[in-house]
Amino acid sequence: MRTYDYLLNYDIKPSVQRIAIMDYLLEHRTHPSIDEIYMALCDEIPTLSKTTVYNTLKLFVEHGAAQMLTIDERNVNYDADIQLHAHFLCKKCNRIYDFPANREEEKVHSMNLNGFDVEEIHQYYKGICPSCASQMKKEEN
Amino acid sequence: MRTYDYLLNYDIKPSVQRIAIMDYLLEHRTHPSIDEIYMALCDEIPTLSKTTVYNTLKLFVEHGAAQMLTIDERNVNYDADIQLHAHFLCKKCNRIYDFPANREEEKVHSMNLNGFDVEEIHQYYKGICPSCASQMKKEEN
DNA sequence: GTGCTTGCAAATCGTTTGCAATAGC
DNA sequence: GCTATTGCAAACGATTTGCAAGCAC
User: Fold this and answer.
1) pLDDT of B50-106, one tens digit each?
2) Closest among A98, A93, A88, A86 to A131, alpha carbons compared
3) To pair with B95 at 20 to 30 A between CA atoms, which of A15, A119, A130, B10?
């Protein structure tokens, strides 16, 4: 499906900028930050403003076409995969990895426990990724 | 137990400022932000600097005496309760509530899945709290 | 031509840094 | 007196705001 139609599915009026940003999100499942997206699209769209990247991602989240991750306190990251899944932040390289979600968690949605209306579920893990772990092991020797 | 000894248990050298900040955290289970803690202690310790609040909470986290919450993208919050439990952020009033943790999640610690060394587990829910929900219902009429 | 979208510059605000003053042993 | 702690002011960096210019139907 063209990204143009993909946006329409979420009731988002397509534009050059919006298509480019959604394209980037769909092709780069690395949970990019605003700055990463902006930097990557600067060449393609030389007049692109960082404000537009902010506005567009806010729009995507409001329309349910992307989710905002607050796992990294340094800045916000975005994910076009809106299926329930967990995220792992490596404290060394700051990369964010996808993990399968704990399916038990889904029940919270329907529980509506004590009148709390749960709209979003986030499962965050933090630690050291295998790549950094093996690198740290090498540096010890 | 005196907060003085409580800090010693975590290998933190006590000071007037550190005791006051830990006291505040232990007595106010509202997951305060840096600014809330600073504002609250300004009267008690007029010379208190916000830098000290930042330094102290960083120290607490490093020594395992508190945990940092990144549930709210606007700013970081702190919790002296280091037991595994979930957090609910109300999108309207921005209050953070404690929830019982999904005990299944604890298994991730020991799983060390695919070589990922999980040091921290965070379960975040976002939505509307009962207090705001009933208020919004009133305003509709 | 009306309304939505974009983009620039400035403002804002949370957080960090550098360094000098202070306190505790 | 030495070392760790504190606190101020400045710097930094992510995000927001105000507004004018541009685009689409």
Assistant:
1) 999 999 999 999 999 999 999 999 999 999 999 999 999 999 999 999 998 877 666
2) A93
3) B10
Buried b (16+ CB within 10 A) or exposed e, A44-71: eeeebeeebbeebbebbeeeebbbbbbb
Residue nearest to nucleotide C8 (CA to C1'): A49
Average pLDDT value for residue range A77-83: 97
User: Nearest residue of B to residue A72 by CA position?
Assistant: B70
Distance B14 CA to D7 C1' (A): 18
In the numeric block, the tokens 């550190």 are attached to B18
Measured between CA atoms, the residue of chain B closest to residue A128 is B117
- Between helix B16-27 and helix B50-62 the angle, nearest 10°, is 70
List the domains of chain A with CATH numbers.
Answer: 1-70 (1.10.10.10), 83-112+120-141 (3.30.1490.190)
Contacts of A33 in chain B (CB under 8 A): none
Name the closest nucleotide to A59, judged by C1' and CA. Answer: C5
Residue entry with tokens 């143009």? A4
